[in-house]
Specification:
single chain, 528 residues, alpha+beta, Beta-galactosidase, Chain A, domain 5, 5-stranded mixed beta sheet, 10 helices, 23 strands, 34% helix, elongated, disordered N terminus
Length: 528
C-alpha cells in the first residue's frame, strides 16, 4: 500500500512538472476580462474648453534623427534624443544578451519613451527639444540631470527633466507644462509607452512577457494574445501605482510619485507595436503658471533586492506563481548564503544541506515506518491470501496489524510530500530568477556555464539518475516483485525528465539524493 502511494506521488511529480513546463501559461486572466476590438479607445475630452491649443507655425523643422545625449553610470548607459525628448536606449552594464565574451549588453528600451500627448492634439514625438547637455556625461557618485525643452503651442512650453541615479536603476522624471498666455489652459495630459511584440512572434511559452501594471494592490499581467488585432485594446481603471513592460528577467516601468484614480489602456498600434496609454485627470493651468507631475522610471533587472530597494510595490513584479510563498524565502535564503560564499553553486549545496537537516526527523520516521512494513510483509501476505474474497475484512485486519506493530503505512511518504512544493518552488526560482542567469559553477571538473540553463554535457542529470538508483536500492523494499521493478525504472524516468531542467535544480536534487544515501547508510548501520 505504502509503495503504491509512493509510486503515485512520484508519477504525480513527473506529470505536474511536464504539465507546468509545456502547457501552463504563467498567468491566467479572469474570464470576465473582455477585450474590445475597436479602431480607437474612446477619447477623454477636457471638462470644459478653455483655450484651444494649436501647433505654432514657428516650430523648428525636425531633423531625421535628432541629436543624442548619453549619460553613463557604473550600472547603465542611457541615451536620449532631442527628437521627442525621450529615452531611446538603456543598456545594463552588468547583463549581456548571451554568455559569450563578445556578447552585446542587454538593451531594455526598444522604442523611445516616455511620450506625451496634450488633449490628443499632438504628441511630443513630433517636437524637436533643446537639451541642457550635449555629448556623453559620466558619473560614478552623483546624480546627473538633463532638461529637455520644446515649444508645444503658442505660449505653451513642455519641459522634461531627467535625473539619473548612479547607484540604482531609477531615473527621476518630471513633466512641466508652462502656460505663458493670459488664458487658463485645460489639458488632458497622457503618457505613452510602446514595445515591440510582432503579431507573428511566438514569445515565451513558459514565462509571462508583456504589459504589466500594479492596480492598487493587484498585479495585472496582460496577455499579448488578447490584442492580436490591430486596434484592439483593453482598459484598466483604478489607482495605478505603476505600469510598463516585463519579460523573464527585466522590467521597464513608469511610477507616478502621487498615484491617482486613472486609467491605463493597452492596445495594438500595428503589426509590431503594443502601446500603453496612461491617462491623467484634466490639468487646469492658470495664466502665466505651470503644471508639474513627478514620476520615477525604473529600467533594470527583476532582482528581488533591487525591486525591494526601489519601493512602490515594485517587488510584486517578481512573481513565482502558486509557489511564490515558498520560492521567495528560498531565494532570500540562497541570497544570504551567497553573501557569505560568493558562489551560487555553493549556495545551492548549502541550502540543500539545510533543507535535508530540517527534514531529517521526518526522514527518520519514514525510514522507520518502511522498515516496519518490511518486517510485517509476510503477515500482510497471509492476510491478503486468507481474506482475498472479503476486501472489507482484509482492510480491517490490515489496520489491526498496523496498530499492533505501531506502523503508519503513509509514514514513508511524508518527506516526499514535503519535497513536492520545495521542488516546484526551486524549479521556479532556478528557471526565472535573474540572480542565477548566466551564473557559472565548476563541479567535478565540469564547466556549468549557466545555472539557469540545462547542463550542456548532461553530466549532472546522469549523476543524479545514478544517485537515485543507489538510493532506491538502499530503501527498504515493501511491495511485490512487479512494483519493485517499476520503482527501479523511476531513476531512468527522472534522468530523462531532468535533462532539460536548469542545472541549478539538478544540482539540488543530486546533492539531496547523496545526502539521503548518507542518511540511509547511517540509519542502516545504527539499526544493524
Amino acid at each position: 500500500m505504502e509503495k503504491k502511494t509512493l509510486l503515485a506521488i512520484i508519477i504525480s511529480i513527473a506529470i505536474l512538472l511536464i504539465w507546468d513546463l509545456f502547457f501552463i501559461q504563467p498567468r491566467v486572466e479572469k474570464e470576465s476580462a473582455e477585450v474590445a476590438t475597436q479602431e480607437e479607445p474612446p477619447d477623454v475630452k477636457p471638462a470644459s474648453p478653455v483655450l484651444e491649443i494649436n501647433k505654432p507655425e514657428s516650430l523648428p523643422v525636425l531633423t531625421e534623427d535628432g541629436e543624442s545625449i548619453i549619460m553613463e553610470t557604473p550600472l547603465v548607459r542611457a541615451v536620449w534624443n532631442t527628437k521627442g525628448g525621450g529615452l531611446t536606449s538603456v543598456k545594463l552594464k552588468k547583463y549581456t544578451e548571451t554568455i559569450e565574451e563578445d556578447s552585446e549588453l542587454v538593451d531594455i528600451v526598444k522604442t523611445p519613451m516616455p511620450n506625451l500627448s496634450l488633449s490628443d492634439k499632438f504628441h511630443d514625438n513630433d517636437l524637436l527639444y533643446q537639451a541642457s547637455l550635449t555629448g556623453t556625461v559620466y558619473s560614478e557618485d552623483r546624480p546627473i540631470s538633463l532638461t529637455m525643452s520644446a515649444q508645444a503651442a503658442d505660449g505653451v512650453v513642455i519641459n522634461k527633466i531627467y535625473t539619473l541615479d548612479p547607484e540604482s536603476y531609477s531615473i527621476n522624471y518630471s513633466t512641466i507644462i508652462e502656460n505663458s498666455t493670459d488664458q487658463r489652459l485645460a489639458l488632458n495630459i497622457s503618457m505613452q509607452m510602446n514595445d515591440i511584440y510582432p503579431l507573428d512572434g511566438k514569445g515565451s511559452q513558459y514565462i509571462f512577457e508583456g504589459p504589466v501594471l500594479l492596480n492598487d494592490k493587484r498585479l495585472e499581467e496582460f496577455k499579448i494574445s488578447k490584442v492580436k488585432k490591430v486596434g484592439a485594446y483593453r482598459e484598466f481603471s483604478g489607482e495605478v501605482k505603476w505600469f510598463g513592460f516585463e519579460d523573464k528577467y527585466f522590467l521597464k516601468t513608469i511610477i507616478p510619485i502621487d498615484p491617482q484614480e486613472t486609467s491605463v489602456t493597452i492596445r495594438r498600434l500595428d503589426e509590431n507595436t503594443i502601446s500603453l496609454y496612461y491617462g491623467t485627470l484634466t490639468a487646469e493651468i492658470d495664466p502665466f503658471s505651470r503644471y508639474e507631475k513627478e514620476y520615477l522610471i525604473f529600467i533594470g533587472p527583476k532582482k528581488l533586492q533591487t525591486l525591494k530597494a526601489t519601493g512602490y510595490g515594485l517587488r510584486k513584479a517578481l512573481d513565482f506563481g502558486f509557489f511564490d510563498i515558498i520560492a521567495k524565502p528560498m531565494l532570500m535564503a540562497m541570497e544570504w548564503i551567497y553573501s557569505l560564499t560568493h558562489s551560487y553553486g555553493l549556495s545551492i549545496i548549502l541550502l540543500t544541506i539545510i533543507i535535508k537537516i530540517f527534514l531529517y526527523p521526518l526522514t527518520l520516521k519514514s525510514f522507520t515506518s518502511m522498515k516496519g512494513l518490511q518486517k510485517v510483509q509476510p503477515l500482510m501476505k497471509e492476510i491478503q491470501t486468507l481474506y482475498k474474497d472479503d476486501k472489507q475484512k482484509m482492510n480491517q485486519e490490515m489496520m489491526k496489524l498496523y496498530s499492533e506493530h505501531k506502523i503508519n503505512p503513509m509514514g514513508g511518504c511524508l518527506p516526499m510530500l514535503l519535497q513536492i512544493p520545495i521542488l516546484f518552488a526551486l524549479y521556479k526560482v532556478f528557471f526565472s530568477a535573474i540572480e542565477l542567469r548566466h551564473t557559472p559553477f565548476y563541479i567535478v571538473g565540469t564547466w556549468l556555464p549557466d545555472l539557469s540553463a540545462k547542463d550542456p554535457y548532461f553530466i549532472t542529470p546522469i549523476l543524479m539518475g545514478a544517485s537515485q538508483f543507489i538510493m532506491q536500492k538502499m530503501t527498504p523494499q515493501t511491495g511485490d516483485a512487479t512494483q519493485q521493478k517499476i520503482m527501479l525504472f523511476m531513476p531512468v524516468f527522472f534522468t530523462i525528465l531532468f535533462l532539460s531542467f536548469p542545472s541549478g535544480l539538478v544540482i539540488y536534487w543530486l546533492i539531496s539524493n547523496v545526502l539521503s544515501i548518507l542518511q540511509q547508510a547511517y540509519i542502516n548501520r545504527k539499526d544493524a
